[in-house]
């Protein structure tokens, strides 16, 4: 199964996403803000990253851009998971290097379907 990095500053959101991912049989690694997420991506080399946007220090857009521009981590697909539901937010997120965009509150079936499209079978 895949190793998935979950980056979110909300402990309850982190736990909720972690439960969904682990129920699918994947291994999870977590980080509590964008800066920690960038470090964890470099250290852990996950198969996929689930990234919140609204976080202290480095927001999810900045962290996504940093990870997708770094040659050592550019291959890792990033799914932005956020309350920011405007079309402009989605467009901006995709421009930063995200491969998909899921809005909160998370619909489990939507997250599962998105994971399946981005993870190798």
Contiguous low-pLDDT stretches (5 residues minimum) are none
The helix content, as a percent range, equals 40-55%
Strand residues, percent: 15-25%
Instruction: Provide mean pLDDT, rounded.
Output: 97
Radius of gyration equals 13 Å
End-to-end gap: 9 Å
The total of helices stands at 5
Largest sheet: 5 strands, parallel
* Helical/strand content category: alpha/beta
Instruction: Tell me the series of helices and strands, N- to C-terminal.
Output: EHEHEHEHEH
Described by the principal axes of the CA atoms, the overall outline is globular
| Annotation, overall tally of beta strands | 5
Strand order of the largest sheet: 2-1-3-4-5
């Amino acid at each position: 199964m895949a190793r998935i990095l979950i980056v979110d500053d909300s402990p309850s959101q982190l736990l909720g996403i972690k439960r969904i991912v682990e129920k699918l049989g994947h291994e999870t690694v977590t980080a509590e803000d964008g800066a920690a997420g960038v470090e964890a991506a470099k250290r852990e080399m996950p198969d996929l990253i689930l990234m919140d946007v609204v976080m202290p220090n480095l927001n999810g857009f900045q962290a996504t851009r940093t990870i997708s521009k770094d040659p050592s981590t550019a291959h890792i697909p990033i799914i932005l998971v956020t309350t920011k539901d405007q079309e402009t937010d989605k467009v901006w997120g995709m421009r930063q290097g995200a491969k998909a965009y899921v809005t909160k509150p998370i619909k489990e079936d939507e997250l599962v379907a998105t994971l399946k499209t981005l993870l190798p079978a």
